């Protein structure tokens, strides 16, 4: 990230810079490139998902990377798909089964989720939105703690960040309780630790 802060541990300032940077990037994207982004799962990720049964996605808001575009290919791969349901303002959520043709219902904070009567599922992989990430797979989220709690609740689930490539930053301050991502998928690459596999 070219913008810097005087205090690298200032997550609030990092979030402000990251939001501004993401917004500017998405505003300059060619409309066709935006529509095609994240519709294809790269082969390294497909291999990692081979034994996965249920993948938790999210409905991208505003200029977030649109995770819902992965749904059709995941279903074609024989995977069940789920979406988060925010339960309260304290950072609690679960995941409800969802198919791309299903109706969505309004939730807290402008979110959308499947029918509230659905039975929650246990995700084998969690695709998470983010504001920033670094090569150590640390994730800078919105600050609500929802995905931190989800990662802790389902520690065996594969943790996948979804982001635009411009969201990579030099270093994300990590607290002791933060669990790093296993990988990050951008519109141009699948990144695992310090290695990058092209083909997203």
UniProtKB/TrEMBL annotation:
Cofactors, names only: Mg(2+)
Q: Which UniProt keywords apply?
A: ATP-binding, Ligase, Magnesium, Metal-binding, Nucleotide-binding
Q: Which residues bind ATP?
A: 139-147
Which superkingdom does the taxonomy of this entry point to? Answer: Bacteria
Where does this protein hold substrate?
59, 64
State one molecular function term (GO): metal ion binding
The residues the entry assigns to the signal sequence are none
Reaction equations catalysed: (6S)-5-formyl-5,6,7,8-tetrahydrofolate + ATP = (6R)-5,10-methenyltetrahydrofolate + ADP + phosphate
Q: Name one Pfam family in it.
A: 5-FTHF_cyc-lig
One of the protein's GO biological processes: folic acid-containing compound biosynthetic process
Q: What is its EC number?
A: 6.3.3.2
Family, per entry: Belongs to the 5-formyltetrahydrofolate cyclo-ligase family.
Protein name as annotated = 5-formyltetrahydrofolate cyclo-ligase
Lineage, top ranks: Bacteria, Pseudomonadati, Pseudomonadota, Alphaproteobacteria, Sphingomonadales
